[in-house]
Amino acid sequence: MDVKRTLQEVFDYFDIDPKGHSGASTGTKWLSTDGEELASYSPIDGSLIGTVKQPSQEYIDEVVEQARKTFEDYWRMVPAPKRGELVREIADEVRKHKEMLARLITIEMGKIIQESRGEVQEWIDMCDFAVGLSRQLYGLTIASERYRHRLYEQWHPLGPVGIITAFNFPMAVWSWNAMIALVCGDTTIWKPASATPFCTIAVQKVVGKVLERHGLPEGIVNVLVGSSRYVGDNFLADSRIPLISFTGSVEAGRHAYQIVAKRLGRTILELGGNNAAIVTPSADLGLALRAVTFGAVGTAGQRCTTLRRLILHESIYDQFLESLVNVYKQLRIGNPLDESVHVGPLVSEESINTFFDAIKRGKEEGGKLIYGGEHLTDMPSNLYVRPAIMEIDHVCPVTCEETFAPLLYVHKYREIEEAIALNNAVPQGLSSAIFTNHLKEAELFLSPIGSDCGIANVNTSTSGAEIGGAFGGEKETGGGREAGSDAWKAYMRRQTVTINWADDLPLAQGIKFEV
Ligand code: UN1
Fold first, then answer.
1. Which of 29, 359, 384, 507 is positioned for an S-S bond with 376, CB 3.0–4.6 A?
2. Which atom of ligand 1 is nearest to the CA of 247?
3. What element of type H or E holds 457?
4. Domains in the chain and their CATH numbers?
């Protein structure tokens, strides 16, 4: 598929003008923003996708104010199942446009088309989950210690939610947050990564169709497209936004967290991962091989859940590594729009530099590059590399970092306890996996003395989590949880209620206070 022609089709389909598009929307309306233009380029061939006029503070204020006002005057009092109807119709709409949305993801950030379709599917799944949830925002009833008293808790909408997302999942991460926030009665304000503005614009166009059809007011689903110089510290410091959900690097997350903490706002942080998989002697090695390959090279190593560290038992070490290298040799690297390609380009020059820098440092710190690591220079852009495998027998500074590229470190272990210690030896704590057919080993890995990560998998990849579970991790990953399970609670405010229906006033804890 040709990049230029496909892009033109996508723009015609969604009716997007790629020249100086507005960077701010309150739903169906786009504001006439006047800031510097942000350009978006396709990593596939380096061609210009389009430009967006970034919103200066005046427009940011207008959008945040609209989100606050619509929340207060309208959205929070719409019954939750009715809010769910909006989300259900968004799901219907996304199903219609799935292929075009997927193509845009691939063109703008470079993941292979199969994975882009999977990403749009995550959005659809999130909608379905949220629609069900809209009838289940349950509170608990608690036994009161007092005579004729009722004690219970209820959940109320919180307010406008700021959603800051990374380039690697330019639609799904927003949807994990926004679909939940919407049924919870919150309005949303999305600031996407600077690398993927047109994915956001297309998403807003799709949502806008539904808002328009129902004549819903502006301010429910809002967008601010701009670099952090525009939509940055002021946005984070804005106390009209009670919750900021941030997905991105540890460094950027630490910065955001401090600004929001200063005003005692809430955050959901989904920061870096440095995920490991342990392959034990009892594992189904064929299955493990496929899972390891998908985990390590999927999205060209640019998922938070990408497999970065492989921990092999000494008895299967040579055999497994040899098979892995053979599989890597068969990987097709190229245009991610081509259905047969496994690995597309990295997103930017910066990612390329990080990849080569990590390989260099890995060697300096005692690693041995056993496969890949070349820059493929005969490609339509400068952003293609051959995924790399590096043997390294210890934990060192470079293996403690999240290198957002397809670079896999391989360690050897003897005892399972040693493998678990290696799994836990890094500052991040997002995803982890063990490959074993040994019940006791699996249970040990899942026990309190096992993996310290937010996600722990047995006989499946570190990446590719379903939306039904809560997604997020511990330690420097930030502790936030998004998507399924009870992650919705972070988007609402809990209210504990005591009702006295007695004729007197019994106090809790048996206190006597007579006047
Ligand atoms: C991310 O890279 O930020 O589990 C999220 C997965 C996907 C989400 C990745 N469902 O790999």
1. 384
2. 3
3. strand 455-458
4. 3-39+58-271+478-494 (3.40.605.10), 275-467 (3.40.309.10)
